[in-house]
Please model this.
Amino acid sequence: MNDRREFLRMSLLAAGAAVVARPASALATTAGFPPGIVYTAAAPGKWAGKEGSHAPKVAVEGKKVTVTTAHPMSEKHFIVRHTVVAADGTVIGAKTFFPTDTEAVSSFDLPDGSSGTFRATSFCNLHDFWLTEFAV
Model:
């Protein structure tokens, strides 16, 4: 898997399989992912209290998806990347940020006829990988 997109797609597909294989009680506490790998607003794990500035917020208007992470951007602590992925692992879009960016906001166009569950991700260089599921 030399391609980053392929790696991300396969990782999310594997994580999706973990969601299907887990009982409902496990989903409530770990969002279907192994603890310590993916964090959500509902399951912030060791980063409890950080969810407001790390879990991505998603707004959908028509075909446009806007992902915002209300996180300060500095040389030592910043949001590295946003990604939007369909339930089947198709990457809809991704944006890489730099410490010099003033905010972590990205926008992507959904393909025509898109519907179902999607995942928005936000990766912080200090506080790991955060995920928000949303439906269209």
